[in-house]
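Re: Re: ligand-bound prediction request (bumping)

Still looking for help on this. To restate: I need the protein modeled with flavin-adenine dinucleotide bound, output as structure tokens. Inputs repeated here so nobody has to scroll up.
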Amino acid sequence: MAFLDTERAVLEALLPGLDAALARHPLAELEQPGSPAVAAFREAGGAALLVPRQNTGIGADPLQAVRLQRAVGARCPSLAVATTMHHFSVASLVETAKHGAGFEWMLLEAVVGKRMLLASGFAEGHTGQSILRPSIRAERRGGEVVLNGSKKPCSLAHSMDLLTASVLMADDDGTERLAVAIVPAETEGVSVRPFWRSTVLAGAESEEVVLADVRLDPQMVVLTDVTADAVLDSLHVAGFLWFELLMSAGYLGTASALVERVLRAGRAPAAVRAALVTDLDAAMLAVEAVARSMRETPDWGEELLVGALTARYAAQDAIARTTAAAQEALGGMAFIGSDEGAYLASASAGLAFHPPSRGRMAEPLCAALDGEPLRVG
Ligand SMILES: Cc1cc2nc3c(=O)[nH]c(=O)nc-3n(C[C@H](O)[C@H](O)[C@H](O)COP(=O)(O)OP(=O)(O)OC[C@H]3O[C@@H](n4cnc5c(N)ncnc54)[C@H](O)[C@@H]3O)c2cc1C
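Reply:
Sorry for the wait, this slipped through. Here it is.
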């Protein structure tokens, strides 16, 4: 069983042909704006990955999903980021559907049937702003809900069929509650503006999505139970669990692609090669441990989320160590001859930039370990 064989076997079993379709393109082509990767993912039926089987989806379990995502990240880092946003939105819809009125299930079946891609807009482009405190307000006007504001960066901005966006919805008593709006991309008032300036991860289409007087049917706005004290409800616990695990697995895959180059080159001492693999695989095993617990436990609680965050921050550290050592092991001629190694190293550092950042979570994690509820503020 060679390095990454397990992950590529899961990818091939669940989304046949995608790995080969991606491997046909040079890395630089997959990672640039207008990347063919998103279309290949859609073509392979990737939209259905987390939709339950009884709703015509593939119904991948958490362990299969993280392994698949590592394989995707090893082939195309931008696609791993972009599709994590899709899977996270689908997983959140599945969670909402369990308590909803039924329209979510219809939507999920449409996602499968029409191969629809879901973008997820939580950030608004300001450092230090919690993704759970959006500035976009949803107002009730007559029989509709009207949205104004913008989301940036928002991956899949050009390919999305639906946008799921966090908004603040004023209740009749004046209190504001976090809600998630589901906005069809072709709705009047939705537009996309350039935002992403870096060449790194530019294939993820992380641009700005502007919402100008966007009118929605109220059933497209799902209220959550997160209030100002930032204690998470079950929808957010489930959402963060999927998000942290899939993101970590995707970026571990990207670092794995660099380590795979060291293994293939075969010149580095065995001790160096073994150290690179054990470091990354240990981090992946932590991600898989939480995924297995999700598979085995029907009630997903804070304990699991603390585990997912622990695995994610450990993955960040493993990525930093292994990508530096792998570039050194590949040597100067590899660095001079191609920018692929440097690219994979810098793309895999992106895990640090997804919410919730380590700095923001240090106090809440320590408080949770002292027995307080976990707050993600
Ligand atoms: C490739 C990529 C794709 C993305 N796609 C999407 C997308 O599709 N949808 C989406 O919603 N978002 C997306 N994002 C954005 C992401 O969700 C973040 O919101 C954004 O990157 C946060 O920016 P920031 O690091 O400047 O801010 P912050 O997270 O605020 O952090 C900046 C720094 O300040 C520190 N810091 C901040 N607050 C505190 C605090 N209270 N205590 C201590 N330290 C603190 C952090 O630790 C960090 O070091 C994407 C990001 C990337 C990199």
